[in-house]
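RETRY 2/3 - previous attempt timed out on the joint model. Re-submitting the same 279-residue input unchanged.
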Amino acid sequence: MPIITNLDVMLAKRKMSLTELSERIGITMANLSILKKGKAKAIRFSTLEAICEVLECQPGDILSFVKDEKNHEYY
Amino acid sequence: MANKFPFIKSVALILQTVWYLQLLFLFALIVVSLLIVIDSPVVDRYKLKGFRVQFQRIDLDKSVQNSTVYFSNGEARLHDKKTNDKFIFYRIFSVFVDAFLYTLIVLWLKKIFKSLETGNFFIRENGIYIKKIAYAVIGISLLPPLIDYFINLQLVDALKIEGVIFKARLSFDFRSLFLALLIFVIAKVFIKGAEIKEENDLTI
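RETRY 2/3 succeeded.
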């Protein structure tokens, strides 16, 4: 998927653990893990809002778009 | 989940028993077929030469001469010394197709009920099993009548009775076809539903 989550980078910058983030925003570790691994298919605005509020960042700091080279190499 | 729904557990148990019986039946069928093929004295091949033929409709004119008889599968058993051995193999093939498709249906039903027992049943795989069952039901409603029609066609050529015209008739069970169509629609809806559920589960 061309959308990549930089949650681990932001967590490292803020020196915060995934467990602490999950406790502060009220999302289970399992769901946050899905988001961190990039397996998530969608993210709710409310979740994004909570993460941005806790990590004091913009949505663009957590999510980024990288062109999928595998799908375009033959074109 | 299983304790909450004893019905599911009992149906799963029944399906498991049916599954073993089906396997036993298939094994017996293979053994009998082999005995027939090798012309073993255990199985009297001559007795098997008879074919169940249902006279779905007999149109006889006032005089027996030039009458028409329609053949279909089912009822009466015909024993004809002239009947060729190959009919036995057509019949065995027909039974094999039927038994095989029923076995597959039981297998897929068993898998669906197994997932019902675990509680994680709203998954794409179950929808695919339902779709496969729909195809099997289509097979059951189309293949055996076609094979029977083929047998009847051969029988019509083999049987010769003075003054009677034999005609083979193709008769499908349209109820099964409609049922298959319904199962197919349910499978499609189920697969779509499972996809939506998966998407919902992966929405954080």
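Helices of chain A lie at 7-13, 18-25, 29-37, 45-55, 59-62, 69-72. Closing ticket.
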